[in-house]
Amino acid sequence: MRVVLLLALGLLGCTEGQVPQAEKTISITSADFGGYPAVFLSLRTGEVTPVPRSLEGFVTHADLWIEPGDPEVCGLTSSFEGATHTGDDTVVAELENYDAPVGPSSAWQKRLHRATVKTGLCFAVRASDGRHYRVQIVHSDKQDSTLTLRYRSADLP
């Protein structure tokens, strides 16, 4: 499995007294796929898990289902396509920009609309452990089934 994980510390949106949040970048390619051309992604750990051909009996604690060739980005519920998802249901909300406010008033939904899943899209994730993340698609290529995301915590330290 090929996963590119870069940690970059910066003063991204930090004010005096706050600790800078680590920003991560993850690239998903066809080399990451298992029996199906999609992956599960844990934002907390950065782990990319290949999706098996059958999800019956499969258990995951990931936050997102990502299918770069479709393209599709979905949050996960307790039962997702036959798999069991542990933790809280994961939801997503489109953002105007990477630094837009994230919180209870965000327009949370189960999945992003396919037409919007493209380079430049910013969205928030309320993850399976209750944490919030800011995410931006920095590269998307349906033909090559690749998707690169940058993200960081949206919660205060």
Tell me what you see in this structure.
The protein has 157 residues and is an all-beta fold. It has strands at 4-9, 22-28, 36-41, 48-51, 59-60, 64-67, 72-75, 79-80, 83-85, 91-95, 122-126, 132-141, 146-153. Strands 1-2-13-12-11-10 form a six-stranded antiparallel beta sheet, with no helix packed on it. It has a four-stranded antiparallel beta sheet with strand order 4-3-6-7, with no helix packed on it. Strand 11 (122-126) and strand 12 form a beta hairpin. The radius of gyration is 15 Å and the shape is globular. 32% of the residues are buried. Residues 1-20 have low confidence and may be disordered.
What structural class results from the helix and strand content?
mainly beta
Report strand %: 35-45%
Largest sheet: 6 strands, antiparallel
Runs with pLDDT <50, length 5+? 1-20
Distance between the termini: 31 Å
Q: Give me the number of helical elements.
A: 0
**Percent of residues in helices:** under 10%
User: Order of SSEs, N→C?
Assistant: EEEEEEEEEEEEE
| CA gyration radius, whole angstroms | 15 Å
What gross morphology would you assign?
A: globular
What's the average pLDDT? 86
Q: Report strand order across the widest sheet.
A: 1-2-13-12-11-10
Quaternary state of the chains: single chain
Number of strands: 13
TL;DR of this structure?
The chain has no helices and 13 strands. It is an all-beta fold.
